[in-house]
Specification:
alpha/beta, six-stranded parallel sheet, 54% helix, 11% strand
């Protein structure tokens, strides 16, 4: 791989080809993770300016505000403030907002009030649901969970321009649910427009609807000569149509992205748009590839290739680390049962300043899977920040369980808690008991028990005697009373696990599992099961476990006052896209964490989607990658040693994720050892039977030859 100078920056031949792409054709650029994409795009803009393209005729479209701010900063450093300011760098939504403002002034769009994603919009969702349920004579309750689910449907429907049949996440809904969603969308749009409201998605949706109805009155046609779309794999149908209209009068579009990182299907993105749709909308594009990743070493590159090559919906592209400039990235696979050892080792590294907290990230497939990890971090007093979710200690069910633990010794511990905090705990305990009381009854009972938690039996008996309650309510109260009495009498020396399990069982805190709905939030049962597992693994008595929980609460409150750079980050894989850390821990990489349906019911699209997500996860680390997998280490090692490329048929939910089985780690490590030792015969042996290793070696060999040629040229 050669590097050549372009201005003040050295670029690879691949990057230079993108930068120097002709001015009169469209371009599609496939860029692997860590390929220097941003710097290449800045080089492209510099090239356009040198070729007399006016700065104000260049538009850069991105998908989030933080990416825009970062790009603007780097553009300013490269071009100077004056020139950089003239170039339009916007999110799709920001451009949509600008256009809707214009359309409103022209009388082409009713004046709307932008409300983003706040409570006003939630109220419209709820009212649309009320009207839907009334229209269809549905008797079910409209819970916050139902409202959140329909908000998810709404976002995807907007992305699909209102079509329910054009995205596999909507297509897989049951017929009855589809009917509800269709009617809900009609009621929602009617209510939104009558109130003149706009959400983020409506900024593009409303403008696009006007464009489709009045194509001759569009102000942006012909305004830009060159449009660059970053992270193009994230584009959805609405944005694709929007882009086509903006570029309609001769603008040349350069779309840059990585199909293998298409992970926002729930927003409407599909691999289809880069693989096929782009070439249909923007004829005869030149296709370029940025295949060299400067982020991680050969082991991660080969491992990532081994996994993602199993997807069919992708470009045939190999990710390769540069021979002379790639970091050495270590990969470690840890059994889930050894999590505490991993956390302990990390804690020692942080205390010894071998690693700084800001260098470390823990990635999870879903937040409910991070609960056990969070509990271990709290017990180890290792500071962390949870991005995008609330703490396990604030979960209502967990708060209720802790409340029951504090009832021992006649509620001594609960009485020691401040009145305000005690009220919150008691409220959680009553709520999860599902007594179905009206708000007046609930608040009276809450006040009485908060003041005297050891007299709860008396207050519950009075409630049954004096209130006109249904049989099912009385049954619930009797269960709560029995559990409360039992908790008050519990000995401090009894094992905590036994009692916690009883609370969960008696109150039915683990809800019945529903059919898979990829658009709906869930995971409450996972949270409770994780807490129960933590309790079991601790092997502590009620007194010691309660004491530990108190220390964990103190630790959690202390963590809140620390600066972000002093805390390890826990975040979802979705949030991690576009970021990198020195040390990445992938937690709970099991079948259960990624798939909720039996293997026989999984569709190809779902498997490929989750494989892309796993690919994104493993390509975030620069120096060290730790994969916390299932407890099937022996099975996994045998699979690697047998040189199997796929995954076993009979994987259980608790087993390591199938994509880890696909990674061919043992053979890859053996090849890389032979490569580092220049053992050519051994390298030929691995390459002969492994097409991936053969292709990768050819790329490495080509780099070596080009490097030798460059050295000879310099010497001459």
């Amino acid at each position: 791989m050669r590097e050549r100078q372009e201005g003040k920056v050295k670029y690879t031949d691949e990057q230079l080809r993108v930068i120097q792409h002709t001015l009169n054709k469209h371009a599609l650029v496939s860029a692997v993770a860590g390929s220097g994409k941003t710097q290449t795009l800045i080089g492209r803009i510099e090239h356009l300016l040198l070729n007399e393209v006016h700065a104000e005729q260049i538009l850069v479209l991105m998908f989030n505000k933080s990416a825009v701010l970062s790009f603007k900063k780097r553009l300013k450093e490269a071009l100077g403030e004056s020139k950089a300011h003239q170039i339009q760098v916007k999110t799709f939504h920001a451009l949509g907002y600008q256009l809707t403002q214009y359309l409103q002034r022209q009388g082409l769009l009713s004046v709307n009030k932008f409300v983003g994603e706040g409570e006003t919009l939630k109220a419209v969702v709820k009212e649309a649901l009320v009207q839907t349920y009334h229209f269809l004579a549905i008797k079910e309750a409209i819970t916050p969970e139902v409202e959140n689910k329909y908000e998810s449907y709404l976002a995807l429907l907007k992305a699909e321009l209102g079509a329910l049949s054009s995205h596999h996440l909507l297509c897989q809904l049951e017929d009855e649910t589809k009917k509800r969603v269709e009617i809900f969308f009609q009621f929602y749009e009617r209510l939104r427009k009558s109130q003149g409201l706009q959400s983020f998605d409506d900024l593009i949706y409303d403008a696009l609807k006007v464009f489709l109805d009045a194509p001759k009155k569009i102000p942006v046609k012909g305004k830009y000569q060159h449009i660059i779309v970053d992270e193009c794999q994230d584009i959805n149908l609405m944005q694709q149509r929007f882009l086509k209209i903006i570029a309609e009068k001769g603008a040349k579009v350069m779309a840059v992205g990585d199909v293998d990182q298409t992970i926002y299907e729930w927003r409407g993105s599909k691999t289809h748009y880069m693989l096929k749709e782009f070439a249909r909308d923007f004829l005869a594009p030149e296709h370029y590839q940025l295949t060299y990743s400067f982020r991680y070493g050969h082991l991660v590159s080969l491992m990532a290739n081994a996994v993602i090559q199993n997807n069919k919906s992708r470009f045939s592209q190999l990710c390769v680390s540069p021979v002379n400039s790639a970091p050495n990235t270590e990969v470690e696979i840890v059994s889930k049962k050894n999590l505490s050892l991993l956390i302990g080792a990390l804690h020692k590294e942080l205390e010894a300043n071998v690693m700084m907290p800001e260098d470390v990230a823990v990635l999870v497939r879903k937040y409910s899977a991070s609960v056990l990890l969070e509990l271990y971090l709290l017990s180890e007093a290792l500071p962390y920040q949870l991005q995008g979710a609330g703490s396990v200690l604030d979960n209502k069910s967990i708060s209720a369980i802790i409340g029951f633990l504090q009832l021992g010794n006649d509620a001594k511990l609960l009485k020691e808690v401040s009145l305000n905090k005690r009220r919150l705990v008691v409220s959680a305990m009553l709520s999860v008991a599902k007594l179905y009381l009206n708000s007046s009854m609930f608040n009276v009972l809450l006040k009485e028990i908060t003041m005297q938690p050891d007299k709860t039996d008396k207050y519950l008996a009075e409630l049954v005697k004096n209130a006109n309650l249904a049989t099912y309510q009385i049954e619930k109260i009797e269960i709560l009373a029995m559990l409360w009495r039992d908790a008050l009498k519990r000995s401090a020396d009894e094992m905590a696990y036994t009692f916690v399990k009883k609370v969960i069982t008696e109150l039915k805190l683990i809800p019945e599992r529903r059919k898979n709905d990829r658009l709906a939030e869930g995971g409450e049962s996972d949270i409770i099961e994780a807490f129960l597992n933590f309790c079991q693994f601790s092997h502590l008595t009620l007194a010691k476990f309660t004491s530990l929980l108190n220390k964990m609460r103190v630790n959690f409150e202390r963590f809140q006052s620390l600066d972000a750079n002093k805390k390890v980050s826990i975040l979802s894989i979705h949030r991690a896209k576009g970021l990198q850390w020195r040390y990445v821990i992938l937690y709970d990489m099991t079948e259960k964490s990624f798939f909720s349906e039996p293997k026989s019911q999984l569709k190809k699209e779902e498997i490929e989607s989750e494989r892309r997500l796993y690919y994104v996860a493993i390509t975030r680390a620069t120096r060290k990658l730790a994969i916390v997998a299932g407890n099937d280490m022996a099975k996994l090692k045998k699979w690697f040693s047998d040189r199997e490329c796929s995954y076993p048929d009979a994987l259980r939910k608790s087993n390591s994720i199938r994509f880890l089985y696909e990674s061919q780690l043992t053979e890859i490590e053996a090849f890389l050892h032979a490569y580092s030792e220049k053992e050519t015969e051994q390298m030929h042996k691995y390459a002969k039977y492994n097409k991936l290793i053969d292709s990768y070696w050819q790329k490495l060999d080509l780099q070596d030859k080009l490097s030798d040629r460059e050295q000879r040229r310099k010497s001459a």
